[in-house]
Amino acid sequence: MRKRPWKRIIGIAAAAMAAGSFVVWLYIGTTRIVLHEERINLKHLDPADDGLRVAVLSDTHFDAGDAPLAAEIAARINRLKPDLVLLLGDYINGSPDPRGSISMADLTRFAGSLRAGCGVFAITGNHELWYDRGMVIRALAAGGVADLTGRCTVIRTPSGRQLALIGIPDYTTEEQRPCPESPPNMPTLILMHDPNSARFVPPERGFILAGHTHGGQLRLWPNGGDRSSLRLAALRVKDKLGMLSGWQRPYALFDRWFMEFHGRLLFITSGAGGNRMKLRTFCPPEIVLLKLYSADPAAAAQHFNPVQEL
């Protein structure tokens, strides 16, 4: 008996719709930047500063045609009305050919369009070295962004109290130096690109903000722990096969969001872009808004996942 043509047509149409929906899902999950809001308790923060709004952005990896995207991200950050903006590195694509990354003029325009009452501060990441770290720092500075790499600075909050900011050099591309000191009993935020730099920070120094991991980019299910990350799964396989070098051990499996590493508390953002591979699954690009508190019950209940080591 001959198969009816309409059944075949319906089957092809259904398959095409399923494939199209999958492509649309991948596209939206890869390109739609979400707002990720969290509350944290910061040691020594005065109650007068409860609710201090800190916008965190990392790993934008702006390509040559991404000036409109940069402008959109800046506008979204400004709409959050942050008191402080912190940039955690890898702003450019990192190609040795400047034509593969956003122009320095456009990066300056992006930096100059960010608005925060307490200032905009930045550190550099590994991709800045592969491009030209000095050029990137100068472009950010021309837009009014202060480079914190290897430094500590003390700012005034809207209440007039003091808050210390520390910038740590990139783990893989910069010479590591002792963690800068901050004044005693002062609330302190520590900026680093690669969370591996937490090794060089005394546990009591302050709360760490990091990027670099991209949240793994490819995850097997939403809201999963580190077992859902394909990147970490690949590292575990390499470990089983003996492919991790001795100098790499112990290899810390930093993932995303709230983590604890030998007594150090971190928040690791998934970042707002991707470098060579832009694809993301169950790990959308994000802008982070942190609200700081002295003793918030919801923040106190936050669980910090311990970092596993191989």
Order of helices and strands: HEEHEHEHHEEEEEHEEEEHEE
**Number of helices, where a helix is a run of at least 4 consecutive DSSP H or I residues:** 7
pLDDT averaged over residues: 88
Helix content range of the residues, please?
25-40%
Task: Using the CA coordinates, give the radius of gyration.
Answer: 21 Å
Low-confidence stretches: 24-30
Beta-strand segment tally: 15
Please, how many domains? Answer: 2
At CATH level 3, the topology of the largest domain is Purple Acid Phosphatase, chain A, domain 2
Biggest β-sheet: strands ordered side by side in the sheet = 6-7-8-9-12-11-14
* Cα distance spanning the termini: 61 Å
At the first level of CATH, the class of the largest domain is: Alpha Beta
Question: Largest sheet, if any?
Answer: 7 strands, mixed
* Relevant CATH superfamily of the largest domain: Metallo-dependent phosphatases
Question: Class by helix and strand content?
Answer: alpha/beta
The CATH architecture of the largest domain:
4-Layer Sandwich
Task: Please render the helix and strand layout as text.
Blueprint: H1 5-31, E1 34-41, E2 52-57, H2 67-79, E3 84-87, H3 104-112, E4 120-122, H4 126-131, H5 133-142, E5 146-147, E6 152-156, E7 162-167, E8 188-191, E9 207-210, H6 230-240, E10 252-253, E11 257-261, E12 264-268, E13 286-293, H7 297-300, E14 305-306, E15 308-309
Parallel strand pairs: 1-13, 2-3, 3-4, 4-5, 7-8, 8-9, 9-12, 11-14
Antiparallel strand pairs: 2-13, 6-7, 10-15, 11-12
Helix pairs in contact: 2-3, 3-5
